[in-house]
């Protein structure tokens, strides 16, 4: 039985991915900052572990308790939406600590075990903002684009050790908790000078023609985790697929 460790598994894409792998017979280690009862049905192949990807001690403890893993999914992340000039630098650094440095730290910690076994897959979840430039998402895009470039380079670096490195690029998923997890409410991030520009953009996001579901992303992770080719990119969701095709 193969084992997968997923970060940010308390809700959204991470939670859906954990459920899918459980249903398909894998051993699942679902991690989150504060594990709590009731997030998942009882299952013999499921373990919940506390993990804060911004804390090196937490990463080390979680991986030590997890033991050997076949697949690491870096899904934990924060959003940031609004006019860039209104974004506090402290919040921008927070976004990078989770989205960028958290992923980098998890990967660095997981590599030695996979390299020793000469097998493993690392799946980094980014976003469709890496597929097309979007307004009012500059800092968030930067945090995800960094992982996009990092993953492509690392895929070449680790291939000789039998380690696959993948990118899953989800589209816009209105059903997730993305908007409720923003460190600063959107209304506070749109100065009056930007109001006329922002209004039609956010109105369009209220009724998008194409969207992504949590199941779309879980299925893309499933494909990425099991693919033995050199494929790097896995757009997830109808809108992400359309953006990838256009790009």
Q: Please, could you describe this protein's structure?
A:
This protein has 247 residues and is an alpha/beta fold. Helices cover 43% and strands 15% of the residues. The protein contains seven helices and seven strands, in the order βαββαβαβαβααβα. A seven-stranded parallel beta sheet has the order 3-2-1-4-5-6-7, sandwiched between helices. Strand 5 (120-125), helix 4 (138-158) and strand 6 (163-170) form a beta-alpha-beta unit. Helix 1 packs across helix 6, helix 2 runs parallel beside helix 3 and helix 3 (89-117) packs parallel to helix 4.
- CATH homologous superfamily name? NAD(P)-binding Rossmann-like Domain
Low-confidence stretches: none
End-to-end gap: 38 Å
User: What is the CATH first-level class name?
Assistant: Alpha Beta
Give me the Rg, rounded.
Answer: 18 Å
What is the string of SSEs from the N terminus onward? EHEEHEHEHEHHEH
Number of alpha- plus pi-helical segments: 7
Give the mean pLDDT: 95
Oligomeric description of these chains: single chain
Tell me the overall shape. Answer: globular
Number of strands: 7
The count of domains is 1
Tell me the CATH topology.
Rossmann fold
Our estimate of the beta-strand percent is: 5-15%
Q: Could you provide a short overview of the structure?
A:
With 247 residues, the chain is of the alpha/beta class. It contains seven helices and seven strands. The protein has helices at 12-23, 56-66, 89-117, 138-158, 195-206, 214-226, 238-246, and strands spanning 3-6, 27-32, 46-50, 71-74, 120-125, 163-170, 233-236.
